[in-house]
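Bug: token stream looks shifted between consecutive jobs. Job 1:
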Amino acid sequence: MRRNLPMILIRVAVGLVFLTEGVLKFVRPVELGSGRFAAIGLPFAQVLAPLVGGVEIAGGLAIALNLFAGDAALVLLVVVVSALVTTKFPILLGHSLGPFALMKLPRYGVLSFLHEARVDLCMIFALLAVAIDCGIRLGRRRQWYQSKGL
């Protein structure tokens, strides 16, 4: 148990972050859901925001409960990388990136990017840790009665 405690803590933290963000896309759609997706410049914001929210809720629960956590980590990595490209890369570049609008900030560049992307970057590394720990079995889960050696 003691050896697994760091990974359990990482899974719980990652699960809570994604569970919370997914729920907020439904509870506050104008600020964090379809309204934000439309403001960023994403197509089909009315459909995409609830879809992403549902994926975040399901993925967050899967990781926190360690049920298909490796698969959920891979799916959530796609979500986080998409968020980085659409919302944070324009900050790094200092201008809009294709259809993705630039957020109004006092400064742009590497330091502003790192500041704005800090949670996204932490989630990327934590999701990679979960994926590595789970072995990325794509749909297969170790039975609760099996030892790690099997």
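Job 2, same session, no restart:
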Amino acid sequence: MLLSCVDPRTQSPIAAWMDGPAPGSHAISLDGKYSQFTIAGAAVGVVAPAFEGWEKTFWDNLGASVQLHGITTLIAVDHGNCGALGIAYGAHVLNDPKLELAAHMADAMRLKEELAYRHPDLDYQAWFVDRDPAGRFSKWTTLVAGPEIG
């Protein structure tokens, strides 16, 4: 299952990444092979205290996806310049690349811990996609490594 943000700037780049092999994540195309949950902030939206209450919908949906689709892995994709991160932790975090990446890393780890408690049988990966100098979301960084799919 893919957990991603609602930001329209990231929809096509993330879909393209899922549709082709991606070293460290998936050795095969996942086109047509994954469920998706999209929420403002991705991992941030599930674990940040500013969005308290949103997590119930995510965990209920994940449970249904496990039951209905037999998913075995959660892939979380956060992104640079995420407005939800700014809401959750302040503009000063969003506007400082080191603080921004650290906040995404911390939330990805919190999600990993919660997933291990709620669904210990699921694998987990977390990724961060940021903009290249041309403004395209094409710079991929591993936040939490997990088993490669396929």
